[in-house]
Amino acid sequence: MAGNEIAISVQGLKKYYNNIPVLTGVDFQVKTGSIFALLGSNGAGKTTIVKILTTLLKPDSGKAAVNGFDLVAKPENVRQVISLTGQFAAVDEVLTGRENLIMIARLRHLNNPRQVADDLLKRFGLTDAAERRVSGYSGGMRRRLDIAMSLVGKPQLIFLDEPTSGLDPEARIEVWKIVKELADSGTTVFLTTQYLEEAEQLADQIAILHKGRIIAGGTLAELKKLFPPAKVEYVEKQPTLEEIFLAIVGKKEDK
Amino acid sequence: METTIKHFISDMVIMLGRSMRHIFRSMDTIITVTLMPIAFMLLFVYVFGGAIQTGTDNYVNYLLPGILLIAIASGISYTAYRLFIDMQRGIFERFHSMPIARSTVLWGHVLTSLLSNAISVIIIILAALVMGFRSSAGVLSWLAVAGILALFTLALTWIAAIAGLSAKSVDGASAFSYPIIFLPFISSAFVPTDSMPSGVRAFAENQPVTSIVEAVRSLLMGQPVSNDIWVALAWCLGILVVAYTFAMLAYKRKIA
Ligand SMILES: Nc1ncnc2c1ncn2[C@@H]1O[C@H](COP(=O)(O)OP(=O)(O)O)[C@@H](O)[C@H]1O
Ligand SMILES: [Mg+2]
């Protein structure tokens, strides 16, 4: 499915919070049907980029488009084709799993909300928990429901902001499986992560965000050439790369 | 255009249904907004009532308007709470990234506030009837009462929206309502103001609750309404406009 069409294009994106720069000129492109991973440590600005791309936040300058629609000029068109799974599970705790899905299906004006909900519950292994209130769900179940809610109405493009943070290894692998299946069905996936391993497992394209910029990007093979683990002296001459490199290696060793 | 309007209304109904479910599934909310005011009413009528001289032979009649205002003031603290939780849990962001009119999200909470307070007001009036409340008011007077109470609810709802949108913690989101719940106690809601010491009395006679209570009481008792009704309306409208303005500022800041 991964053709040469561009699903997301970002140029010179800048964002300040109270005059403090968070994004200082971000550029990247995401191909339709691919999995794109935005890799960055805590506070790098990943969520800020996701919020801008999902029309929740306006950039201070730069251009960004989703499926050719400019984010600032045509936010309604963008919202028609995207879906967001935010960093913190955006589910209604008081409702049951099924009620959550039906609610989203109704808001998307689908013809058969109950059927849509049942299908997704089954697909995500939540049928047994369907009638229970979400407040009693485990972290992994909540995340699965959260992602299921984002799939209602089959959006062309789905944003997952740190979908596996805070999950145990088992739940993490389940989310990975879901992401792979999504991409196989032709959905474009934009995900953010703090873990190189996750990007490695999932992504066709990886971009590393650091100090408000994409400091490296490409396929995993291309990135590996940039960080040859043996050449420590090379890294030492490039302090920013070193920080990233050490962050990545440090996190991998934590496991 | 027509489907846009149709979708707007159906989306609004979905939002309303969602937060009404939140209320019906929260024992805490139900107890606070209906049972507590009824308990207050029982307490004042059967325990303190005998000692209170209001100049009316039926203390329930005297008391009811103030009880209704207390119920509404407790009700809107839950509006602030629900709004705060929605903002914090990220469900606002999910809705805002979906192809629906964004205003339905906030207005869903406002409608819920109006509807749920109307329900608790009706329940409390029914309980008052059981306790001996009798009204000689005609349909027009009842409509006027409903209008004043709805306006009062709406005004307080926008205060709640400010709190819910700008609070930093759950407690902060609902704490603002305590002074509002307390206002009826320093008004003519339970005892006539002329029994109060002069300083307190000056406050009681010039704060919004007294005029609202007096207006509602006169309407329910079928007495001629004095100037109070205009003062009450002016207070409600004034609070509404100011609170709405600040709530919108807080809202824009949140979603900018
Ligand atoms: N609403 C905000 N106001 C001020 N600063 C913010 C706000 N949101 C995020 N930041 C700051 O912007 C930086 C990037 O945040 P974020 O995009 O959440 O990073 P990430 O998702 O990569 O952890 C952080 O330093 C964070 O403290
Ligand atoms: Mg983040």
Radius of gyration of chain B, in Å, reads 19 Å
Order of helices and strands of chain A: EEEHEEHEHHHEHEHEEHHH
- Please provide the ordered H/E string of secondary-structure elements of chain B: HHHHHHHHHHH
Task: Show unreliable segments of chain B.
Answer: none
Class by SSE composition of chain B: mainly alpha
The average pLDDT value of chain A, as a whole number, equals 87
Spatial arrangement of strands, main beta sheet of chain A: 6-7-8-3-9-10
| End-to-end distance of chain A | 34 Å
Q: Could you give a short description of this structure?
A:
The complex is a heterodimer of chains A (255) and B (256). With 255 residues, chain A is of the alpha/beta class.
Please characterize this protein's 3D structure.
The complex is a heterodimer of chains A (255) and B (256). Chain A is an alpha/beta fold and 255 residues long. Chain A is built from ten helices and ten strands. Chain A has a single domain (6-254), classed as P-loop containing nucleotide triphosphate hydrolases (Rossmann fold), CATH 3.40.50.300. In chain A, helix 6 links the parallel strand 7 (157-161) and strand 8. Chain B has 256 residues and is mainly α. Chain B has one domain. The model of chain B has no long low-confidence stretch (mean pLDDT 91). The A-B interface holds A 51, 54-58, 76, 79-80, 82-84, 86-95, 99, 103-104, 106-109, 133, 149-150 and B 7, 10-11, 14, 18, 21-22, 25-26, 89-91, 93-100, 255-256. Bound molecules: adenosine-5'-diphosphate (ADP) and magnesium ion (MG).
